[in-house]
Design a protein that fits this description.
This protein is α/β, with parallel strands linked by helices. It has 2 domains: 261 residues, TIM Barrel (Alpha-Beta Barrel), CATH 3.20.20; 102 residues, no CATH class. The chain is built from 15 helices and 17 strands. The strands form 4 sheets. It has a 9-stranded parallel β-sheet. Strands 1-2-3 form a 3-stranded antiparallel β-sheet. It has a 3-stranded antiparallel β-sheet with strand order 8-9-10. Helix 8 links the parallel strand 12 and strand 13. The longest helix has 27 residues.
Length: 371
């Protein structure tokens, strides 16, 4: 039988339409929702120290199971006290299952009901990732929230392929639950591509299982903003309200606010950190691309309405200079700003739901970022 989770709970505190204000509790702390989780692929959010992340208001981060399994290995991390101790992060951590990276990064050799057979992207060695193995790795890492192994299909994919992936995802979900031996939270994942009926079927099947939360996977893979929303419209009504809902790998600011309006509670994405390293800043006036020559003598901060360390201390001219000269400080200052923007966006979202004026924020973000 699946082990019940005693270290995780979720409470709903309010709503504004379908948008939800909530809170979940883990062994390493409490997280307010809706929430954005910075991505710490290799047990680090790139260019950030844990102290900086805490100062920015990050409540929870995401770590990548596939990469940590490849190196240094879950055995080493477990022996060194677990992921929190290993990376010096004392608040909640969510880990993915590693399945998406097996599809997208490694050379996938074969997929069957048993699991994913793939070749390591590091040395080409053969690896088998089963539902049981995915749970075991995450338990040894010691994360607060673990994710089930699922079959993520490419976009576009034939309906027959997607239907088989839905069935396999449900099969693996049950095996992940049976494999859990700790009291760490475990989330199931809904698949189904862009087929509304398959999404509804997957959502119903996963919701019937005793997971601590439900994730929607397989989106933001090229289907476009509007089609993603169509998929959410078909999926969200099928999910139980008592558990947190997590939209994986999404995304742009307007993706987030539109998903919140449909009842999503949790988000992660590499965009704020990756775009920072590529010289693109998110602001309350829209995107800023630092390589543009017009910023060469610009004395203004990136965003005069922003209170982050970067905007309080540095000009666009200086940030452009750092970027074009490829200084390490460029990635640091840009990442501070972008994560501040995303975390401030979520603070505004939570406040908007509490004050029943979320729609005004939703409209403003859409005007700024919807192309």
């Amino acid at each position: 039988m699946a082990t019940p989770c005693s270290s995780f709970s979720f409470e709903r505190l309010g709503s504004c339409g379908e948008a939800r204000r909530g809170r979940f509790h883990t062994a390493h702390g409490t997280v307010d929702t809706p929430i954005f989780m910075p991505v710490g692929t290799q047990a680090t959010v790139k260019a950030m120290t844990p102290a900086t992340l805490h100062a920015l208001g990050a409540q929870i981060i995401l770590a990548n199971t596939y990469h940590l399994h490849m190196r240094p290995g879950e055995e080493i991390i477990e022996a060194l006290g677990g992921l929190h101790t290993f990376m010096g992060w004392n608040t909640p951590i969510l880990t993915d299952s590693g399945g998406y990276q097996a599809f997208s990064l490694a050379k996938l050799v074969r997929i069957s009901d048993t699991g994913l057979m793939f070749a390591s992207h590091i040395d080409g060695s053969p690896r088998l990732l089963t539902p049981e193995k995915a749970v075991d790795i995450q338990e040894r890492l010691g994360s607060d929230i673990m994710m089930c192994l699922d079959e993520c299909v490419a976009y576009p994919s034939p309906r027959k392929h997607v239907e088989a992936a839905v069935a396999r995802t449900t099969l693996w979900a049950g095996r992940c639950l049976e494999a859990r031996r700790s009291d760490k939270a475990l989330f199931g994942i809904v698949q189904g591509g862009v087929f509304p009926d398959l999404r509804a079927r997957s959502a119903a099947e996963i919701s019937r299982l005793p997971f601590d939360g439900i994730a929607v996977g397989g989106l933001s893979v090229g289907e476009g903003h509007d089609r993603m929303l169509d998929v959410l419209d078909a999926t969200m009504p099928c999910l139980t309200a008592e558990r947190p809902r997590y939209l994986m790998g999404v995304g742009m600011p307007h993706d987030i606010t539109e998903a919140v309006a449909r009842g999503v509670d949790m988000f992660d994405c590499v965009l704020p950190t990756r775009n920072a390293r590529n010289g693109m800043l998110f602001t309350w006036n829209g995107k800023v691309t630092l390589k543009q020559a017009r910023y060469r003598r610009d004395e203004r901060p990136p965003d005069e309405a922003c209170t982050c360390y970067t905007c309080r201390n540095f000009s666009l001219a200086y940030l452009r200079h750092l970027y074009v000269t490829r200084e390490i400080l460029s990635a640091i200052l840009n990442t501070i700003h972008n994560l501040h923007f995303y975390l401030e966006l979520m603070r505004k979202v939570r406040h908007g739901i509490e004050e029943q004026n979320f729609e005004a924020l939703r409209k403003h973000v859409k005007e700024l970022y919807h192309d």
